[in-house]
Amino acid sequence: MSSPFDSYMSRALHLAVSDDAPRGVNPRVGCVLVGDSGLIGEGHHRGAGTAHAEIDALMSCTVSPRGATAIVTLEPCAHTGRTGPCADALIDAGVARVVYAQSDPTVQASGGAQRLRDAGIEVISGVLQEHAEAVNADWTFMKTHGRPHVSLKLAGSLDGKVDSRAAERLLLTGSQSQALVHQLRSGVDAIAVGSGTLIADDPELTVRGIESANQPLRVILGTTAVPEEAKVLRGNTDLLVISERNPRGALAELASRGVQRLLLEGGPTVAAAYLEAGLVDEVHWFVSPILVGQGVSALNGLGSQQALDVTSVDVVGEDVYIVGVPAPRGSQE
Predict the structure, then answer these.
(1) SS3 319
(2) What is the pLDDT of residues 169-181, one digit of tens each?
(3) Which of 42, 54, 75, 265 is catalytic?
(4) Which of 130-139, 179-188, 296-305 has the lowest mean pLDDT?
(5) Confidence of residue 1 (pLDDT cuts 50, 70, 90)
(6) Cα separation of 65 and 211, whole Å?
(7) HSE (side-chain half, CA atoms, 13 Å) at 295
(8) pLDDT, tens digit, for every residue of 84-97?
(9) Diameter over CA atoms, the chain
(10) DSSP state of 167
(11) Residues with Cβ < 8 Å from 225, sequence gap 6 or more?
(12) What share of the chain is helix, strand, coil (3-state, %, to 5)?
């Protein structure tokens, strides 16, 4: 159902995803201020430590904001961090109405709407809510779960092997599947592998063949030292080594660094550990049309059955590409 504020909220959403509004520990937020004559100010958040969208909009006002309507994509915060509460700033500015799209999901910052109402300001919520939630879907997930969204990428043979006991290195996917993996990498904040996979495969963990503004953070999980000649040490992309063995602890560290979406590329031990801990949100499995026989299992050490709800199955070159999300444990059709 449309509202008279939709067009202004659309403008605020456009501001929220400006080029200088990076993903990170803070959400992307836009705000516009509307007076009797129309738009009188607008602003957006530009990252941790910078002015929040409401403050940025107030500072840009061409006339006094007293009596104006503030339209913002996220509920104004009610806490003091690096900046003061945005709800208080709007109250002090004398706005008459606040319209917002998405409620703040965090315990620390929520409550701004009630503070505004207590000050006698009219508050309207839920305008273009789904659009706003889409802008900050990963940030919202991180705040509500305390960790990044985790996609697990695996490649294996028809008989579930990722390596053979033969001397030659096993090539599991074709060029089309490899190109698709780079597309997956381009949509995340970080790519992680276990130290065993680093030693065995020597991956670069970079996006190649796709124009990408930013390369994801490269993450090594494990205590084994990174060899001096490893490919992950090349280039300018940041590298983070996490020796924390507990998957939840490793994800908490990534969340503290602003990582909202993680692509976990193995190997078998790491994949099994994160599945076992219930910390995988999506599985991307490339199945190669080969039978290996004796070799390394794709999930080494997985101790319990893991059910998936399959969302898509595609043929990519000669490979089969399966995407699924973990179903409740023990569920059966």
Answers:
(1) strand
(2) 677 889 999 999 9
(3) 54
(4) 296-305
(5) low
(6) 42
(7) 23
(8) 799 999 999 999 99
(9) 76
(10) S
(11) none
(12) 25, 25, 45
Distance CA 300, CA 298 (A): 6
- The number of CA neighbours under 13 Å toward the Cβ of 69 is 18
| Tokens matching residue 36 | 């009797």
Cα–Cα nearest to 264, from 149, 146, 162, 116: 149
**Burial, 25: exposed, middle or buried (Cβ in 10 Å; 0-12, 13-18, 19+)?**
middle
Q: How far apart are CA 43 and CA 64, in angstroms?
A: 15
Cβ atoms 156, 265 nearer than 8 A = no
pTM here is 0.82
Distance CA 31, CA 272 (A): 44
Token pair 């090349």 is found at: 234
Mean pLDDT of the chain: 90
Tokens at residue 163, please?
Answer: 């390596």
pLDDT tens-digit profile of 185-244? 999 999 999 998 899 888 999 999 887 667 899 999 998 889 999 999 988 889 999 998
Residue with tokens 């000050």: 119
Active site residue 130: no
Q: pLDDT value at position 297? A: 85
| Token pair in block for residue 209 | 């063949």
Check if the beta carbon of residue 26 is closer than 8 Å to that of residue 44.
no
User: Contact, 316 vs 155, CB < 8 A?
Assistant: no
Hey, what are 16's tokens? 């929220």
Residues 6 or more apart in contact with residue 5 via CB below 8 angstroms: 69, 71, 99, 124, 127
